[in-house]
Amino acid sequence: MYTIDFDNKYTDILLDDKRVITAAHLNAVCKCKTIDACRYICLTANGFVCIKNSILQNMVDLQVDQGNIKAHGNNCTGIN
Questions:
Q1: Cβ atoms within 10 A of the Cβ of 45, count?
Q2: Number of neighbouring beta carbons within 10 Å of residue 42
Q3: pTM for the complete prediction?
Q4: Which residues contact 50 (CB under 8 A, 6 or more apart)?
Q5: Which of 10, 37, 56, 62 has the least CB density, counted as fewest CB within 10 Å?
Q6: CB 11 within 8 A of CB 51
Q7: Contact, 49 vs 14, CB < 8 A?
Q8: Alpha helices in 1-80 (DSSP H)
Q9: Tens place of pLDDT per residue across the chain (80 aa)
C-alpha cells in the first residue's frame, strides 16, 4: 500500500516522534523482515513509525483482509 498525503491528513501521525519505533523494538516485537512482521510498521522520513491506533490502522486492516499486504502480524498494543 502506498499513500501520498496531498492533503496532509496523515502528517501528524507519520511524523509524530512518539510513534517512532526503536531498532530494538522493531526487531524484537515488530519482527521486521520476518514472516511474523507487524502490519502496522510504516517507513517515514523520521524512520519506522507505528500506525496502530490511528486512522491509518483501518486502511491497513482492509488491505490485509483483501490480501494486498503480506505482513499480517499484530504484535503489540501499539506505540503512541
A1: 7
A2: 21
A3: 0.84
A4: 19, 21, 30, 38, 40, 41, 42, 78, 79, 80
A5: 62
A6: no
A7: yes
A8: 11-14, 23-28, 55-65
A9: 555 666 778 888 998 999 999 999 999 999 999 989 999 999 998 899 999 999 999 999 999 999 998 888 999 988 86
